[in-house]
Amino acid sequence: MAISDLDLHVLQRWADQRIPAHARSQVWIELDIKPGHVTIVECRPFFLDPDSEPTRRPVARCRWTNTTKTWALLWCDSNGRFRLVPDFDTSPTIDALLDEIDANRTGAF
Length: 109
What we know:
The protein is α+β, with helices and mostly antiparallel strands. The longest helix has 14 residues, at 5-18. A hairpin with a 2-residue loop joins strand 1 (28-34) and strand 2. The mean pLDDT is 93. It has helices at 5-18, 94-103, and strands spanning 28-34, 37-44, 55-65, 70-76, 82-84.
């Protein structure tokens, strides 16, 4: 279930443009890439000790299904479990998922 290089490039470009340049020392987006899915993670310096490891909070997961050639969008609940975004169908393009994250209709992102 390999994710295409083009989709990974689109995801990385989206993550890079998500945070304004002046704020990137305070918050940034990282992508945890695994076979079959990409987890979007919000990172921040630990406020009590800026020299320690940054805090990492999973925000969303984009899951690729190779058999159907579609993407599914999942949100991360307060227990760290990923759940399908309600009222959002799978999509053949990653762009639809990123648009849904940006629109944040459910308030999950």
